[in-house]
Amino acid sequence: MKEKLTIKNIILLMILIFIICVFFFLLFVRPKLILTYNNLNIDSEITVELNNTFDIKAHLEYLNKDMKNKIKINGNVDVNKVGSYELIYTAKIFIYKLEKKIIVNVIDKIPPTISLIGNTESNACSVNSYVEEGYTALDNYDGDITDKVVIENNVNERIYKVKDSSNNEVSVTRKINITDTLGPTIKLKGSENVYVIQNGTYKESGYEIVDNCDSNITNIKIENNVNTKEVGVYTINYTATDSSNNTSTIKRYVYVYNPNTAVNMNGSEKGVIFLTFDDGPSTYTSKILDILKKYNIKATFFVTSNGSDKLIKREYDEGHTVALHTATHSYKKVYASVDDYFKDLDKVKTRVKNITQEDATIIRFPGGSSNTVSKFNKGIMTILTNEVLNRGYHYFDWNISVEDAGSCANKKSTSDKEKCIYNNFVKGLSKNKMNVVLMHDIKSYTANKLEDMIKFAISKNYTFDKITMDTTQIHHKVNN
Ligand code: ZN
Q1: Which of 108, 216, 259, 335 could hold 374 in an S-S bridge, CB 3.0 to 4.6 Å?
Q2: What's the pLDDT at 423?
């Protein structure tokens, strides 16, 4: 059976063909959303350097027409902050919905910098013994990252490495020359100035040697020509040499003296006033301390078992020397025997140690080493003056007495007493000697007149100091 090509059929056929054409057209001719960055098509992500601007170009093509204005962008990128950002491009055309997601990675590619403090080339005994001079690490993005620096030691270099938060790494090197240019350090045990009585024995107190490279220094020379038979000042030289032949020398001075003639043996304290206060503390001590504080003068207090601990503590805390005078100050007791003397001295020594936590080693004999009141025990002062030195004490007499416990104490009026001690002070001072001034902080008029005496000495350009173990001892002639 043959069908006829009717007009109706032709129209139906054409519609069918048209529908097929539209179908294929829609199938193959679709709009395209194209993203480019630096003229390259973006697939799914791009990388941008920190703080740089960037420009993504978006095209929407459909039937050869650019329809850029139909594109919408969602999302944000902060180029000043390292991170991954999502941008979504969408467009709607006709029946088509287009969408493209891309990731923008903002990265930091600039490495940190490390700055070395000190020389980039240093000397040390070994890399391990090099004492770090310091360094800083700064990053454009992270800021100060010094605490992230890792140090590696090689044979003769030190490598400093650091990574920033984006893993950019930097390393700098400090060259370490393995050499030793420093001599050993010699430290004397005992005093730098040693006093030995004529015909006595010099006792070496020893030394300590520390070297920056060598753990044990054995090359030590000691030149000692001390002749205790002859009065004089002797120098002992200690010389130590390390394995790199660096040498150091230190000196100790030994004063061999005759206690019957010795006064101011080296004269290094010429023109210096050493104010000394005996027999305290007492109720007048705080006034004396106030005056000393006002003029910033350090003095020496030869204390007994008198007065309150608080005053001794104050003497110590305010930088004065707390020295020992014996506990009882009773001539009969302290000069009864050598044992009695040291028992009494130990008593006040213990008192002071409990207050200051320090061993006092500076002493003054009641009545001075020249006293004759001890003659009831013949020769006791000759024995004691030697024995205290043997036991490591330094004893101090005086060469100026203001007579506040002597002749001035007998004056009738207070003002006469004050005048008397002031005159003795002024008369006694000399720029050609050290001035060790004997006073007593148990006397009201001494406390009252002290400021005037200090003012006079300052006006004459005298300086003040306290007695220490390095102060030249001043000894009277022993009379018993
Ligand atoms: Zn006394």
Answers
A1: 335
A2: 97
pLDDT at 195: 76
Residue 323 and residue 397 in one domain: yes
CA angle (259 as vertex; 254, 262 as ends), nearest 5: 70
**Residues 195 and 308 both lie in one domain:** no
Model confidence at 273: pLDDT above 70: yes
The whole-angstrom distance between residue 370's C-alpha and the CA centroid of its chain comes to 46
Residue 58 and residue 84 in one domain: yes
What total of structural domains would you count in the chain? Answer: 4
Residue span of the structural domain in which 224 resides: 185-257
Q: Is 21 exposed, middle or buried (0-12, 13-18, 19+ CB in 10 A)?
A: exposed
Looking at residue 264, what is its pLDDT? 47
pLDDT for residue 68 = 76
The answer to whether residues 195 and 255 touch, using CB atoms and an 8 Å cutoff, is yes
CA distance 230 to 258: 9
Residues 335, 450, single domain; the answer is yes
- pLDDT, tens digit, 9 for 90 and up, residues 103-147: 999 999 999 999 999 989 988 888 888 889 999 999 999 999 999
Surrounding residues of ion ligand 1, Cβ less than 5 A: 278-279, 366
Concatenated DSSP letters of 388-450: HHHTT-EE---SEE--TTTGGGG-SSHHHHHHHHHHHHHHH--TTS-EEEEEETT-HHHHHHH
CATH number of 198's domain: 2.60.40.10
Cα–Cα distance, 208 to 189 (Å, whole number): 7
Are 294 and 431 members of one domain? yes
In the reported structure, the alpha carbon of residue 202 is separated from the centroid of ligand 1 by a whole-number distance in angstroms of 30
pLDDT confidence tier of residue 261, bands split at 50, 70 and 90: low
The alpha carbon of 255 and the centre of ligand 1 are apart by a number of angstroms equal to 27
Instruction: Answer yes or no: do 172 and 199 share one domain.
Output: no
Please give the Cα distance from 103 to 44 (Å, whole number). Answer: 6
Give the Cα separation of 418 and 424 in Å (integer). 10
In Å, the largest CA–CA distance within the chain is: 172
Structure confidence by residue, pLDDT tens digits, 276-291: 999 999 999 999 999 9
Distance (Å) from CA 426 to ligand 1 centroid: 22
Residue 336 scores a pLDDT above 90: yes
Q: Per residue in 198-219, pLDDT tens?
A: 888 898 989 999 988 888 888 9
Average pLDDT over residues 434-446: 96
CA of 30 to the centre of ligand 1 (A): 119
Count of other CB atoms within 10 angstroms of residue 228: 17
